[in-house]
From TrEMBL:
Residues 41-60 bind DNA. SUPFAM superfamilies: Homeodomain-like, Tetracyclin repressor-like, C-terminal domain. Pfam families: TetR_C_11, TetR_N. This is TetR/AcrR family transcriptional regulator. Gene3D superfamilies: Homeodomain-like (1.10.10.60), Tetracycline Repressor, domain 2 (1.10.357.10). The keyword DNA-binding applies. It comes from Marinactinospora rubrisoli.
Length: 203
């Protein structure tokens, strides 16, 4: 049974199918982190997951279909947002979550590989956009709550504030290769909070 319009691998399964999906996605993440997108191979992923090649090819079809499902799973498994009662506290929690993800021995290289793939593959780029849209939507309410508390002006764009928190961290990961540490995460959160209070993100 298939769902009309669903991408390969994106229908949420149960039972044995769920276990197969989990094993394959874990193997795909490991392979991406180790070898990058250019060397990702469905047969190798099947071998790593101890799953039949036919199952992987039938379910995901292509490498990009597998990466799209991996990003969907990562968005679903990501930790829920933290509520601290202040905008700065919430943004600092967000920044530290991003920082921990980007410096994780597995997740950091995996993100680098997926972002690199997205620059030359539109399907991967679309999946990456959906991933970040999901994460931004998860954290946007902390800005709306700050508006309600009077911490930031009416009309502040929640999405722009959340983007401003993580952008410096991704720049360090992908461009400057400077350390992505907690102090950097805290500075990014503080800068975004100060700018938001000053009305920099009012539409």
């Amino acid at each position: 049974m298939t769902i009309e319009g669903a991408e390969p691998g994106t229908v949420r399964p149960g039972g044995r199918t769920a276990r197969v999906r989990a094993a394959v996605l874990r193997a795909a993440g490991d392979a991406l982190a180790e070898q990058g997108f250019a060397h990702l191979d469905l047969a190798d992923v099947a071998r790593r997951a101890d799953v039949g090649k036919t199952t992987v090819y039938r379910r995901w079809g292509t490498v990009t279909g597998l990466v799209a499902d991996l990003l969907l799973d990562m968005a679903e498994q990501s930790l829920p947002r933290t509520r601290t009662g202040s905008l700065l506290g919430d943004l600092r929690a967000n920044a530290r979550l991003v920082q921990r993800t980007l410096t994780d021995p597995r997740q950091g290289p995996l993100f680098k590989a997926v972002i690199a793939a997205a620059t030359c593959d539109e399907r991967t780029a679309g999946a990456l956009r959906r991933f970040y849209r999901t994460r931004i939507e998860e954290w946007a309410p902390c800005v709306r709550e700050a508006v309600e508390r009077g911490e930031v002006p009416e009309g502040t764009d929640p999405h722009e504030v959340i983007r401003a928190v993580s952008a410096p961290l991704y720049y360090r990961l992908l461009a400057s290769n400077d350390p992505v540490d907690e102090a950097t995460a805290d500075r990014a959160a503080e800068a975004a909070a100060i700018a938001a209070r000053a009305g920099a993100y009012v539409n």
